[in-house]
Amino acid sequence: MTSIDDVARRAGVSTATVSRALSGRGSVADDTRDRVQIAAAELGYVVSASASSLATGRTRNVGILTQYLTRWYFGEVIAGAQDELADHGYDITLYTIGGEGSERKRVFDEFLHRGRVDALISIDVALTPNEIASLEKVDKPIIGVGGPIPGVRTIAINDDDAVRLALQHLYDLGHRQIGFIAGADAAVDEFHIADTRRRAYERFLAEHGLSAAPGTVQLGDFTIPGGHAAASAILDQPIRPTAILAASDEMAFGAIHAARERGLDIPRDISIVGIDGHDLGEYFGLTTVDQGVRFQGHTAATILLDELIEHRTESADANTDLPVRLVVRTSTAAPR
24, 138, 140, 249: which has the fewest Cβ within 10 Å? Predict the structure, then answer.
């Protein structure tokens, strides 16, 4: 088996230089680092994770706290973070902590205190003061994704801006009767994003002198079946809107299905808009507000890596609003 001594001899440097060059920690000239990396590749040398951890106190592993692994949003944020971390030689450990039961308590009281991660990413988890205090004892960098957490560096989109961007698009097309499918799944909405988006919808209508016809605002649960049921209720009202905004793309997919079941043409009879930037949006021809979900994970990982590798830190409580953009496809047009 190739050892670090073999790499040092091939590259003509000390073992300490090899360690610095391959770990990314410490000052090494660019040409020396290149020479070491070439020697390691030629010899098939792979850094021992356990030995590196003992020598540096680092595990090169980042813990990710998340509510779900199977829902699209969570999976995409994790994928974005994992891609960036893997590029820098970091593994991830996933902790699923949905709800408020004993499993969630064990994660904070036991698992995160075993020293097996260098940093933490919390995805759409509104940490409690006790949980934050437990994390402070671990003394590891942490960043939250999805909403503000007191005392924790966070990143999130501005949900008010996302709703307004979608509604302004419909308004500019000439729509004045706009229904809304609001989220209602408290189990995956610890930051009350559904409430924020519904209030933004209501404010936009009020500011533009509009009102929603009875029954044209319905609750879904951020799923395709939930969107289908909500849209069905909206489309069966005596006064049918000319457009529907869904608080998530998956609910918008359900709305498209409900409209087609009723023989309605999209977008001539009904325009539909979502919020997310879901991978299947192009397949459905869905106009959406893309919130760059993978980019959220990538950004969180980049901020952590800056702190771990470059020792750059930003103040706790700082929240960065990430950009959103309107993607216009075939599900929206001017009303007849």
Answer: 24
Q: Residues 219-238: pLDDT tens digits?
A: 998 999 999 999 999 999 99
Evaluate whether residue 19 is within a structural domain.
yes
With both helix axes pointing from N to C terminus, report the angle between 4-11 and 30-43 in degrees, rounded to the nearest 10: 120
Residues 143, 63: Cα–Cα separation, whole Å: 11
Q: Report pLDDT digits (tens) over 19-31.
A: 777 766 567 888 8
Cα dist. 6→3, 48, 52, 56, 237 in Å? 5, 14, 17, 21, 76
Q: Is 130 left (phi over 0), alpha (psi -120 to 50) or beta?
A: alpha
Task: Tell me, yes or no, whether 333 lies in a domain.
Answer: no
What is the four-CA torsion angle of 142, 145, 149, 152, rounded to 10 degrees?
20
Q: Which domain holds residue 33?
A: 4-56
Tokens of 100: 């408020």
Q: Are residues 187 and 96 in the same domain?
A: no
